[in-house]
Design the sequence.
């Protein structure tokens, strides 16, 4: 049987079963074959999807993840319902997003945020090699793993507060839009 890494193909079902059967009895007790395959798929997805998304954005536009996310997020903030104001807002949103895009003034910042911020967030904080701390990972990875539970609780609280602020801003924008003849929600 040829080594899978040299072939460049995916392991067959028989190869997967052989790998699973080669695991220790202790490891087999922790996971069934199906659970083990699901974990392997999840790990592969976590490793490849950020790269695939980066390549797609690079090939089919001038966006990186930071500029795409900026444009998308700002595009969701239309509050007046007046087409002229919405068009102006779209132009401003694109201007802001383009500055962190491929040829923008802040392209290095956008690239760094895309790679070290958004991609790490998609990978649960890990870099491309699966480490939390890069060269210092032997020290930082155990600390990060222990702190994740506390961080998740803080993130939930911050999301709640952020949602309340956003709702308040939308309400104020709706009121102002209503004054100028826009739809009032």
Sequence:
């Amino acid at each position: 049987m040829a080594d899978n890494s040299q072939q460049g193909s995916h392991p067959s079902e028989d190869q997967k079963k052989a790998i699973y059967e080669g695991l220790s009895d202790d490891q087999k007790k922790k996971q069934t074959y199906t659970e083990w395959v699901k974990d392997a798929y999840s790990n592969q997805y976590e490793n490849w999807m950020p790269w695939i998304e980066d390549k797609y954005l690079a090939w089919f536009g001038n966006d990186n993840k930071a500029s795409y996310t900026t444009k998308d997020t700002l595009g969701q903030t239309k509050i007046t319902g007046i087409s002229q104001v919405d068009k102006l807002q779209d132009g401003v949103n694109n201007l802001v997003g383009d500055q962190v895009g491929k040829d923008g003034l802040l392209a290095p910042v956008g690239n760094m945020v895309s790679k070290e911020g958004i991609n790490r967030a998609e990978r649960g904080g890990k870099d491309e090699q699966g480490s939390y701390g890069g060269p210092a990972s032997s020290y930082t990875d155990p600390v990060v793993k222990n702190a994740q539970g506390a961080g998740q609780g803080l993130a939930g609280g911050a999301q709640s507060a952020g949602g309340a602020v956003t709702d308040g801003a939308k309400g104020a924008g709706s009121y102002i839009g209503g004054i100028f003849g826009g739809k009032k929600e």
In short: Residues 73 and 93 are 9 Å apart (CA to CA). The helical segments are 4-7, 13-21, 25-30, 33-59, 65-75, 83-99, 107-122, 137-179. The longest helix spans residues 137-179. The chain has eight helices and no strands.
